[in-house]
Amino acid sequence: MTVEHPAVDPAPPIAPADQPARLDALEAAVRARSALVPRIGIVLGSGLGGLADDLDDAVAIPFDDLPGWPAATAPGHAGRLLLGLLGGTPVVMLQGRFHLYEGNDPGLVVQPVLLLARLGARAVFLTNAAGGLDPSFGPGTLMAIADHINLTGRNPLIGPNAPAIGERFTDLTEAWSPALRTRLHAAARAEGVDLAEGVYVGLVGPNYETPAEVRMLAQLGGHAVGMSTVLEAIAARWAGIEVVGVSLVTNAGAGYSGAPLTHEEVLAAGLEAGPRLARVIRRFVADLDA
Ligand code: HPA
Fold it and tell me: CA-to-CA distance for 25 and 118, rounded, in angstroms?
């Protein structure tokens, strides 16, 4: 007996080779609203969206006004692309991002970063909220990302390549730019802001980790854990732009304190530490070409 299955319409994955045409459409939609050529792109993670208020002459485009982009669904994410001047430097900001845990294809997750590169940005500054794996990283710790471990099990570069964007086999030896990280530490020092450094582990989420997973990830060499960033860093390197970033540690990893983790504490820590990180980013951008 044959079993009848209801018709399903699986959205095909977005391969690298599909990105150029999609980026053409996205670029045209942005250029219909702004001619600004950004020096750098800045991705603002959970609770960090406040930096967008510092933009001068900003043009804001809701994600779902852009071809193929859904509205951002994660709480704490406004879901807008903004072009404007940050302390006089032309920048593009993403207030919010697309996550795998929302059900998004890896190719969509990285499209914002590919679009930043297409618009002219030569570097991307990735920020995120994260749990602390290093026991010394309490809530409010800012951690410069020195490297990452991609444990999402996903990769945005699977499928036919787009040689116009990048090579088949992307080198990640210095994925997180040592030169930009040196400048980042200098910016933090100049602002009197403590900045730790470590390895970010990216998981798919959306559940927080178990205590056993936190212990394992710390043993694997991770210092902070979150649900974003790693695919974006991979795509940025594929597209040939530099990557720098900071994790805002909003909570000790699961099991360290004994108390359950809540999204509210993540957002509250973002509110507390977000302004400190915003100062570092403003100084970093101001001194970028100094
Ligand atoms: N785990 C994963 N992602 C997170 C956490 C965490 O503890 N805190 C904020 N984002």
Answer: 11
Residue 198: phi, psi to the nearest 5?
180, -170
- CATH code, domain carrying 156: 3.40.50.1580
Specify the DSSP element, H or E, that contains 270. Answer: helix 263-286
Task: Note whether residue 208 is domain-resident.
Answer: yes
Q: Report yes or no on 217 lying in a domain.
A: yes
Instruction: Tell which one of 46, 141, 201, 225 to mutate to probe ligand 1, the residue whose CB is within 8 A of the most ligand atoms.
Output: 225
Distance separating alpha carbons of residues 97 and 45, to the nearest angstrom: 7
* pLDDT tens-digit map of 77-91: 679 999 999 999 999
Q: What is the DSSP letter of 16?
A: G
* Residue 11 is assigned to a structural domain of this protein: no
Identify the residues whose C-beta falls under 6 Å from ligand 1: 129-131, 208-209, 225-227, 250-251, 253, 261, 266
Establish if 150 belongs to a structural domain.
Answer: yes
Q: With a threshold of 0.85, does the pTM exceed it?
A: yes
Question: Tokens 């792109």 map to which residue?
Answer: 41
User: Which tokens is 186 given?
Assistant: 């200098």
Distance, CA of 233 to CA of 206 (rounded, Å): 20
Helix (H, G, I), strand (E, B) or coil at 131: strand
Residue identified by tokens 């026991």 is 135
Which tens digits make up the pLDDT trace of 185-233? 999 999 999 999 999 999 999 999 999 999 999 999 999 999 999 999 9
Question: Is 257 part of the annotated catalytic residue set?
Answer: no
Place of tokens 């209801």: 6
